[in-house]
Task: structure prediction
Amino acid sequence: MKVIARAALLVASSLAAIIVLGPLLWALSTSLKSDNHIFAVPPRWIPDEPTLVHFRRLLAEGVHWSFLNSTIYALGAVAAAVLVGAVAGYALVRYPVFGKRALLVLFMGVMAIPGYALLLPTQIAFVKLGLFDTRLALPILYAAHVMPFAVWMTRAHFAGVPRELEQAALVDGYSRLEAVWKVILPGARPALLSAAAFGFLYSWNDYITATTMLESPDLRTLPVALIFFQGFHGRDWGALMAGVVVATLPPVVLFLVFRRYLIGGFAEGSVKG
Amino acid sequence: MPSPPRLRPGHSARSVRFAGVAKRFGPVTAVADVDLTIEPGQFVTLLGPSGCGKSTTLAMIAGLELPSEGRILIGDRDVTSMPPAERDIAMVFQSYALYPHLTVFENIAFPLRARRRRMSNEDVTRKVRDAAAMLGLDQLLDRVPREISGGQRQRVALGRAMVRTPTVYLLDEPLSNLDQQLRVQMRSELKDLHQRLGATMLYVTHDQGEAMTLSDVIAVMSAGRIEQVGAPRDLYDWPANLFVARFLGEPGMNIFEGEPLDGRLRAAGVSIPLPDTLPDAPDPLCAGIRPEYLAVEPADTAPLLGTVRTVEFLGSRSLVRADIGATLVTAFVSPDIELAPGQPVGLGPSDPCKVRWFNGRTGAAIRAGI
Result:
């Protein structure tokens, strides 16, 4: 019985792994093949003569600048969203905020609005504000998209922290700010990291907001830049797959480093929220 | 009346004084008009049922709540609206409130590392080791709170309080999360600690056993007011009113309400002789007799006549519950006396001097000619 259960689990996990990893590995394989091997029949997993020609092509096209843009937008958005979100989450737990429940429902509600519905109004607003096609456009929007989640996540955490911990620090000779900094924040690290990781993945993966809010080639994000390899004259599959590989690396690294917080954090948010 | 025992106070110990302190939360009055003085080095317990305002009173000394009215003085400093950090007090919380991400060492060191104290690392280490040695925590300094037992956490919380020799210790039900055996052990450790430190300690509890054994002075609170302040023995022997009489003691004092008539307190099943010294007995009048001062007497002459409800054999004595008129009376009697439920029984005070008298309308005690 136990053996069957284990075998079933193994088969299911393997299937899931193939479904998830297959395309990624295929992209990796393709990115290392020269153009005339990509459509070789029968297809081969391991390239006969691995080549970095497609990665060089990315560099030649300046895709590394887009990579840098994506990174800066995402990090800026995450920093703003987590900082403001955590302060709001703390205040919503510890201070008598007018209309607290309504605010929380509002934060929850806006998470349910599909982003696409807001694209055109936001674009019009940004044009009028002079933010359209500037470096600030995406960090502001990504931070706005991620913030409700950050508020909920941190609020759920702070609500579970006994008030006495802070009071103990006050009595021990610390100011309120010091108490939060030394006692409350260290304990909130999992919640902050999982909010940050979620925010980074969201910002990193976005395509639609980036194409709507930016026009200049030097402001492009990575997903937008890669789309240009699906040109009008047939697709440059090698370069496209090399780009996919590059784009996948940061999330994978992020997950490997923070997976403990990511999994735990999401569970915490779902149980206590 | 014996005065509370006075210890030589420690050098940092200060007095605490409440002058007309009140605390209101919206329309709810948590603490009403408290006047109380705690001498340096005294162990004072605020005792009362839950919700009586004792924890709020403690929080006001700590500065975690601000009084709505009145002043609080520690030593000769008016701390009424001073932030907690500046009051130089230490507090042990019911939940211990240990910092979960810090080791035992860092938990105890935490107050010393506050910027306002500017203490060198060597001094911190020395003081933490001293406190840890005193509490037997030497072996646990590298653990974090979740890796140690409840009793050990309790000691860490005490260590964090002790380490900086505060002017006043505030202890909010610090033993209530421990199991019975550990509680009794920590109780005597706490008493011992108080004597060694000579510190002013203010203790909050609803457990009268703790209050009785630990305190120099007990302040009994009810509904935001202090009902009586005094040494444990005085409170037990001479309750100032019916609340204290019923609240103190396990079980509390038996109270008989009736009218004074022809030199006796009379009610259904009750006929207790009034002492000659009781001047102009009020009507209604209440007599109070502790369970241990009730004895079984022949039914035809007994001042109290009723029916046995239950008998609990406790080994050295038996606890008898009997209905006398409308009153359920408890009495400790010799286990040799055979009583059965439903049986009529006569009871009376074993010593007339141990009967206490109260004004039935105001509840205040009447000190008959003493």
Q: What stands out?
A: Chain A is about 75% helix and 0% strand.
